[in-house]
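User: Fold this, then the next.

Assistant: Folding the first:
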Amino acid sequence: MSSLLAQLFPPSTTRNMELSADVLIILTSAAIIYYLTRWHRWKYLWREWLTTVDHKKIGIMYLIAAVTMLFRGGVDALLLRAQLAVPNNHFLGPLHYDEIFTTHGTIMIFFMAMPLIFAMFNIAIPLMIGARDVAFPRLNAISFWLFAFAGFLFNISFVIGGSPNAGWTSYPPLTELAFNPGVGQNYYLMALIVTGIGTTATGINFLVTILRMRAPGMTLMRMPMFAWTTLVTSVLILFAFPPLTVAMVLTLFDRLFGTAFFTIGRGGMPMMYVNLFWLFGHPEVYILVLPSFGIFSEVVATFSRKKLFGYSTMVYSVLAITFLSYGTWVHHFFTMGAGAAVNVFFGLSTILIAIPTGIKIFNWIFTMWNGRIKMTVAMMWALAFIPTFVVGGATGVMLGAVPADYQFHNSYFLIAHFHNVIIGGTVFGLLSGVYYWWPKMTGRLLNERQGKWAFWLFFLGFWVTFMPQYALGFMGMTRRMYTYSHGFGWSSLNLMSTIGAFVMGAGFVVMVYNFVWSQIHGEIDVTGDPWDGRTLEWSTPSPAPEYNFARIPVVTDRDAWWAIKQDHKSNVIQIKPQEIQDIELPKSSAIPFLMGLSFFVFSVGMVFSWWWIAVVGFLGFVVCMLVGTFDYDDHKEVPRQVIQNTESALGRLQG
């Protein structure tokens, strides 16, 4: 028993910070259980959310998970900045610092940004292309629950067993069992394997959805720009995530079964891990930012009240980025001795990819030119992106210059660039999408005044946080440094960066308050089209009914809903009763949730080398697969009369 307790609760899980987290987790869990029990919500939770296969509800669950992970990753960031605020600080010890920056990077990339992207996919894409649902609704739910349980697995590591501490890239030999005993790194590997499987399934799902389920008349060149960026992102996922999964599995084998794929002392090749990781890692940058490009295209066109300028050019540029993104991965390790010829090729490809990226910025500017711009919060995030991403892109080209990269590579200049691109591109874009599609998700509008407070706090805090880090990089401060001495002259810039991080945190708090406030006091969207939108999702009520469209629309123009409104001179389309037919929809199912739970049990067994628990989890997965395979009663029919009643209550039925 004592050895088991020592394994579950090593010293790294019994520090004051971790014990405080334990208390908060227990209190929060007790409050949730009390609420669900007191108000008899267990059945509702199971019926409406845990077993749903409705893409709209899955999108909302992705969004809730992403905001939760943004809080967790943001707290990690504040802890890192608190440690670096002043010289010779001992707020965090070196091991604790390693754990915090590992979990910060991993959570923000895999468990915040990716689910926020998938939230936007689920909320907008089927409605935007005139589809009833995604191509594989049950697979969509499985993808969510694999992500959710992987995120839960990763997050319990800091209170049970110990956190991973080898960095978010987790290069060997830092991950080798000889140098990194304990189970922390196993948590990292299993969480990324499981969420990677779910992410790959999501890529397949939305690729098929867009290619096969568009409304009649919606050719590829009539698709909204967000649908295009979702399409190419899905392609990138299919080719980028398998190398990551392979790297994680082989590293796990090295740790658990004594193989030597990357173990250098036994003839392994750590550089092979680095290649596999960045074969995923650089396309991942575009997996993160391309959906934001699509969101900006929709937001800028809507709030400029103009068609997107240079639509064809935008399409070809995202296709070019998709292709070129696979020829840039080696620029992440120019300093590792790949050779001059290799470095020159990847340096040129890195600079070349800036061209199609820059094209989009000019297109958005020309779209706004002479437009009647409405300065909503969603539009403010889009405008803030342009200067922010220009700086991030320019510094990326600097890093692509091989001789310069030898100076910048391991410095805070790289940290500033990476955050400049990921926050200024991905996060700004996704927050723009959240504000833009919030009425469609919830049926209520967010408070614009609160949204502008959140925007300015977050935006100004961002610049105050990361601009000093470029200077720190020039002054020689290296990344992964947990403390520093007075004599380097870094103190004032680090303090400024820390203040900016806390201002960003204040912006996040105001934003979440706005989300909660709107659900209680927010203005109800009665039209379904509060922004006078241009694409088909705005032709449906807010929130959209379970069946999405009572009648699948026929598309005749690129801005399909805008064209329909011009023809009908109305922003509400009334449907004739005889046009409504019975609609077949997928049934809710417990299988996706139980499959995610089985993967979680299997993962816990693998993390702690408890093989009998791993076998139980694997058998649970097999049973779920078999039951799902032979479940032929997986659809339900929504009667015509129910649809008529719903549409009539919404004022959308003629007569």
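Now the next one, as you asked:
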Amino acid sequence: MKPGPSRLRKLCAPLVGAAAMFVALFVAPGAAEAAVGSHSYTVTATLDGRTAKDLNNHAYPNKYPNGSTITVVCQDSGPDAYGSTVWDRTSDNLWVTDFYVKTGHSGFTDEVPRCVNGGAPGSGSGRPYTVSATLDGRTERDVNNHAYVDKYPSGSVVWITCQTTGPDAYGSNLWDYTDDNLWVPDFYVKTGYSGPTPQLPRCSGDETDPPGTGPHSFPVTATLDGRTVKDVDNHAYPNRYFDGQYVEITCQDSGPSAYGSTIWDLTYEGLWIPDFYVSTGSTGFSSKLPRCTSGGGGSTGGHSYVVTATLDGRTAKSLSNHAYPDKYPSGSTVTITCQAYGEFTYGGSAIWDKTTDGLWVVDYYVKTGTDGFVAGLPRCDNTPPPAGGDPSGWDPGSPAPPSSTHQEKVNAAIAAARAEITNHPLYAWGGGHGAHPGPTRGFCDGINGYDTPGHCAASLRIGFDCSGLMRWAFYQGTSVDIGPVTTYDLYNHRPSIFAYTIHRVSDLQPGDLILSRPDSSGRPAHTVIVSKVSGSSITIIEAPRTTIPLRETAFPTDTFVVGYRLA
């Protein structure tokens, strides 16, 4: 196992199931969560039954033989016992050390409640935890808010429904939301974690009706501190970035070794994180990212990227110019110093890149991570976009040739949606709703488009929201633009390209458009395309929301509202 970072909490293998449940809370509204209550587990050593959480207590010697099954009714913290401070209360009203109980977790398990008043399991909405100090109940994430003074006495149990970040509170920026609809600082809540709790969801407004891929946004694979210098001992902003969160990286630099790598990444907030835990797709410097200058932002000599086709080096922004044939082989790296508009090239793109050789290459085949201009790269000149161009750098050109059969339309639509998982993986609120079908820059509307409080991720991304992706996919399949419609629009009026309405999940077929996730009024708030059907198992392609990339995944059938089928 790779060494874990200082002040960094990485989920252990036994917590994979809990992490999957955590994701499911965002992915499938209404999906059933594992019931919290008494559960039976196998013990891995012969255990005494204790009347107190004390290794010197042997009230019932050898009560539970090695390999036997016990029923745990609740768990609590206690004195260290074999490297764990978790103790389990059995259905016999006795204590055993959790270290030798095979719950599948190295800490508290999310299946069993916390113990209250010495042994009885508590009940409430969310998950129960003990507070280690008397806490006010706050109506806002603000240590100066004292709406309910001394609401939660030290040692009492509080039920937490979700967590999110906020202003620093006693050395942590993590806040917990109670079932009383109040905020408490996580620092004094004994969740068993000093960072975010994998068994609890993030608090956020669910993006229900979507209205550039950040070329430098990448998921982190562990909860990371934000550091003001490249130093693993610097913990300026503890647990700043959640495991799985997409973080915008501005540049990379060398620095002290951190977990086997000497590469450090600078975030959009001006904080350093170790590259070892950033999924850039490379174990070394990423071709998608510039190098930092003088330990900070900026780049030296341009940005380096991989080309996806063998490219000529051109002395002018023209496809008819072949000054240096096959100058840059497919898969090689080129360094781009600036970008500019020129004549249309491939896929409707009008962006050209200038290399450090002083030559032009078509941006369409340069893997910058975006179909638009790259943030941080200067413009080579002030050439305006060609007639019919789009300020984002995207012009759809002509769609795929009209398909002659229903199946050809279906295949083309599915292929177009699936391709965007790679081409524009990050969800962009408002993306895909430009004058023409295709990826556009997203935006934030005060509620949606944010990946952390106050950070508008959508404005940094060129890509799609859910209905924008469907518009693009079916345009490629039918050559007909259904327009910049929202999910609600689609529900209120079935576009002419669809000939049938489907009312039963069992009738769905590949290529069908699904409207799902009913809101409080019963109207759908999400739209996806069916990619596969196998028995009762349905697979979809979707743009889920800001914090979850585009994906092909199982469809939660309980969210189905209605479906449409192509003519």
